[in-house]
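User: Please run a holo structure prediction.
Assistant: Happy to. Please share the sequence and the ligand.
User: Here you go; the ligand is nicotinamide-adenine-dinucleotide.
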Amino acid sequence: MQTFNHFIDGRFQPASNGRTFEKRSPTDNQLMGQVAEGTQADIDAAVGAAREALHGDWGRIAVDRRIAMMHAVADGITRRFDDFVAAEEADTGQPHHVIAHAFVPRGAANFKIFADIVKNVPAESFVMDTPDGAGALNYALRKPKGVIAVISPWNAPLLLMTWKVGPALACGNTVVVKPSEETPATATLLGEVMNEVGVPKGVYNVVHGFGPDAAGEFLTRHEDVDAITFTGETATGTAIMKAAADGIRDVSFELGGKNAGIVFADCDFDATVEGIFRSAFMNTGQVCLGTERVYVERAIFDRFVAALKARCEGVTYGRPSDLGVNFGPLISQVHRRKVLSYYGKAMAEGATLITGGGVPDMPAELAGGSWIQPTIWTGLPETASVVREEIFGPCCHVRAFDGEEEVVRLANANRYGLSTTIWTENLKRAHRMAAAIDAGIAWVNSWFLRDLRTPFGGSKQSGIGREGGVHSLEFYTEMRNVCIKL
Ligand code: NAD
């Protein structure tokens, strides 16, 4: 049995009132441990420690030293790679290969990439004329924004949290992280790494707990927080934006999606089936960038649906470390109830069920886990709730289309605009489509291929702002103009 305490001012500590909540395994629903339940006093202590560190060692540290420390954090994660993989597997129940090859390495990379960007990006300067002819020199200084609140979700806990913490610290800020209540493990483990590599106390703080009227909300409402970076549901983003309005705090939001995969008849068929399968079902469909709407050109529609069905029916369920397992459970029973309610709605709205639609038969020792079948529907109108709303489960609706114009209209008729995938061997068409679809990221013949130097974020109700590469500096620093009369 584990205890997940807060990490405040360099020390692991329980909640101020001693309260905890249960963390259960998604794989078998067994109790894994107790998590400290953050209070207003815990948030006050964490924000206070973060503010203190800004005025202390961290505020005075030379940039080179700070950059070196970020590399040391990345190396620290790599040194304890197996611990991070085991912690994330236990928290999420996802297969070993996803966590060990995609999610944990990205956790380390998030510290390195932004450290190098901070070190190498030049600041602008302008020489200006003055009436006396002497002239003046202007240059820009990038100053850290201050104490950053980081609020993160459960679907790729380490990757998504460090995607914020990496640039925030590299830019000289301090952070208070409120990880998802579902996945407390890796944020806690990162506290150990921070201490191991000598990051000053108060720079990285973690307070566990819930969102509304709890640790998350206390953090976003705290008057000594300078900016809030959030990844999660659009509805939560709305609540956080209201909280941020008091005190005019800046926000960066990465929110929900209902992403369209667009398959043309001239695609590389086998590679496309595999690509759509991954994008719809990896991480049991719990990926914001995942595909829940698939549009397939009519000429290959039947063949495509049959191939995707066969791929779904070949998945192997099981514990993360079991050999050959490629399909994990959903994060919790609560989330499974939500996804199953959509499985029910799809049928009530008249869908044709191609495969799945329920819960798989599992061996007795796993029967308590939040297992669910990968599911494909066809035949629904675009007005159906499973075609419009984000489900965040392993399911997609597949619809036939005729021509580019129709598919652009269908893909864009949604309030979200996070990502899209376009599958075609026609280069001109690929460029046309990438420009036409409302999305923050358009993948052509690929998915989840990420260069961390590129802008990342969502259009429409999928987010506010862009992070990644130099774009992260826009959010995590404040530009100051210095004007020197010569
Ligand atoms: P969620 O919005 O329910 O929770 C995210 C975090 O916000 C949690 O830590 C939660 O405790 C906290 N929270 C909830 N209410 C709050 C409040 N009122 N004030 C402050 N904090 C609050 O999201 P989730 O269910 O954990 O994650 C799934 C969602 O995240 C999906 O919608 C998915 O699309 C989205 N997501 C988006 C991206 C992206 O990059 N755009 C990436 C991953 C996940």
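The radius of gyration is 23 Å.
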